[in-house]
Design goal:
Blueprint: E1 30-31, E2 34-35, H1 36-40, E3 42-45, H2 46-51, H3 72-90, E4 94-98, H4 99-102, H5 109-130, E5 133-138, H6 157-176, E6 181-185, E7 190-191, H7 199-220, E8 225-229, E9 238-239, H8 244-253, E10 260-265, H9 266-271, H10 276-285, E11 289-294, H11 312-324, E12 333-335, H12 346-373, H13 375-383, H14 390-396, H15 402-411, H16 422-434
Parallel strand pairs: 3-4, 3-12, 4-5, 6-8, 8-10, 10-11, 11-12
Antiparallel strand pairs: 1-2, 7-9
Bound molecules: D-xylulose and cobalt (II) ion (CO).
D-xylulose (XUL) is lined by residues 98, 138, 183, 185, 229, 231, 265, 293, 304, 336.
Amino acid sequence: MKKYDEVKKVIYDPKSDDPFTFSYYNPEEVILGKKMKDHLKFAISYWHTIDACGTDMFGGDTMDKNFGKDYGLDRYKKKADFAFELMDKLQIEYYCFHDVDIAPVGKTLEESMKYFNEMVDYISELQKKHNKKLLWNTANNFGDKIFMAGAATSPNADVFACAAAKVKAGLDAAKKLNASGYVFWGGREGYDTLLNTDMGLELDNLARFMKMAVAYAKKIGFKGSFYIEPKPKEPTKHQYDFDVATCMNFLRKYGLEKDFKMNIEANHATLAGHTFQHELYTARVNDSFGSIDANQGDLFLGWDTDQFPTNVYDTTMCMYEVLKAGGFTDGGLNFDAKTRRQSNTFEDILLAYIAGMDTFALGLRKAAELIESKKLDSFIKERYDSYTKGIGKKIVDEDTDFEELYNYALKIKDINVSSGRQEYLEQMINKVLFK
Ligand code: XUL
Ligand code: CO
């Protein structure tokens, strides 16, 4: 097998046996009127790819990502150089980061800000040189011990202020780097026990925090989308952004539903007891589909394992939803995924991205087939046909009431609810996937 440095650029070559080629991802190929690269808008996650070294609850690093530099800005500059070269190799146009991913943490918040701003300038140059774009950035407002009880939902107002300072700096960076989005993932915005929690105040404060972020973005002219990334649990027992439906309820309560869309992560959906498709579909019908954190979990482990997606069934149904939602605008597919602890070489990073990108490319191809065949659409259309005429049409048009329905119902002679044909539909999908 080739060494990392020997792989200059991963290209589409479906007949090749070389594992460092794409078998399904052909960036310039047009599918349903759009290039594959514009349908998929792949991004690398800085935290997993450039920083994480394999540490878990039971053991330390299995990889070295210090690039020969012991500490400080030099190390982070080397990391950034590596990030942009990796994107070139993989033909990935976008990247995502938390503030602490790109710069060292200082002894004080002021010092951290200084490092952060210096690295934003450095990355801004790399972005131009390599012709890359920032899909979104965010703040890590959960790692430091001051955030142990949350950030915007901390019982301590000084912590709220520090979190706000970090998001302000993040929005300034987003503006400077021309990011197409800014993400709020809950971090520790939730609770471990209700015995010590004022839930009402915490939720009100979270909304206050978000309103201030929206106002500041407007003030500085940041035009990107704001996203909430739902997750039900981990690190806290209950995260306030449990799932798409819970987030929509929160946004509507505080009048923020026009300002935020959803960044939906596959592994977070399954932790909430939903399929990935369920979360995407819920966002679509609530006009809040925005972006995706692509990964997959392991249902037997039951925590946020952030594995690279290799399940074609899931990526097909995901891309089906993305196409149905009209495709990405500001959003894209960020691989919030890390190589397994034992996959600890730089070759593994390339192979993992190739697997993830190809799995989504194949999913896109299969989803396009499903849409073009219209088989699901026409089945569903027929299933709900009773709402296109007679009393059904009156219900949809909101042109009836309980009294009319009462009189109508008493006169019905025969009711024949048609078969849901689940097995037929599952077989139909199998035929699209495996024929
Ligand atoms: C945590 C998670 C985060 C967000 C960004 O589960 O998914 O990495 O994507 O903070
Ligand atoms: Co995520």
